[in-house]
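Page 37, top half.
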Amino acid sequence: MKKNYNYTRRKLYLPEYGRHIQEMIDSLSLIEDRAERNRQARAVIAVMGNLFPLLRDTADYTHKLWDHMFIMSDFQLDVDSPYPQPSRQELTSAPRRMPYTQSRIAHKHYGKYVGQMLRKLADVRNPQVVSRTVDCLARYMRTKSYEYNQEHPNNEVIIKDIKSMSGGAVRIDETALNNLRSDYKQHFSARPQKGGQQRQQRSQRNRGPQHGQQHGPHGNRNFQKNGASRRNSQK
């Protein structure tokens, strides 16, 4: 018996459809009647759509199926498609190379946009807007520095970095930045309310005698002594 292994077969163009769909598309080119070939091609498209029913709600789903059929036929199938037939050059052309910036980031843990925003502040004439923006950026810089170094930097370090990143073009209120406090990842210390311990102690004192009379050991001991003395007197 002749064995037919996959490594001896032809390589599939789209392996996700399987070898049976590939053989069905190969058999379409052997049909001489064009009308019959178009009818069989639509039947193959329906079978291909049944293999991935969850993708039917996507846009241009039928268009993709026809393109896949032309790809699997190595662009040799001659049928009447409702969509323009793709060419080999369109699918094999290399994409346009994306230009990437090669600028050096002086403070990588802050990111490049912090420096750009600080340099843009040099053109702002409103001192209040500059002060509020610098304050927000300083808090953000403390946050990113904590994520990078796992410790909060001193305000002197933040002021020094702001001056270097802005090129000295931004006026900084060092007094306000020295009083800057970061609330990022601060542990919450729960403080007891005033009078809470006094009310708790007062309620315990009020419940103490009643609790001792009903369930306390002294109450049971007194009841036993009274009962024992009562029985002794009867004797």
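Page 37, bottom half:
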Amino acid sequence: MAEGLGVTDRTVRAYVEELEQANFFTITKRYGIGEYAHNVYHLDYLSEDYFVIVPEFITENSITPHLKGLLLLMKTYCVKGTNYLQFSSKEALAKLLHIGKNTLPVYLQELEENGLIRFIDDTLHLPCQYFKLSIIDGIDNRMYETIYKYCLSKGSVPPYKDADTYDIGAFITHFDTPDELFKALDTRCSKLPRKVSFAYFTEALLNKRTETRVKPTYEITHD
């Protein structure tokens, strides 16, 4: 395990002990005998506050263990349901990631040169080929992924699904497949603003406006 993670055996033992005490998983020790002896690590089911990575990310030898750890840390700060995080400055990003402000640029440059991160204005984007947007392969998630990746191809920050104007259902009604949705995007949305909302796509693709809920700023009184 230590060899696979690129750390020392002592470090693995310390982390395993800490994770076990925090009840992140349970361990069945000394399972089997002789050359088949091994431990079984059972990860408890998480209903929220988790993200999905593909196995290729773990086995990709071209990415050093240290950079893999940094990417995983970045993922924990991503906007829910997306692969990007927002920051006000590189200094704020260094503080968020608990990395020295003079050291962070070195890591960011290495990640960027290897195509593992991308900056769009005040957002930092992680590669979708390693971090899945959803574990469920439903039509709504595939439609969202189509919009998400199209935005990135145009250098725009994709919308996120928790927005009030989230209207994937309407797109599913009008476009039977993600391919049809992509063709419509390519035809009607060839140029996108740097940050785009679902309201923008609803108007561009369905020729209708989507009202965004706004909290009232007034009160009604009776005499």
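Margin note: The longest helix spans residues 139-153.
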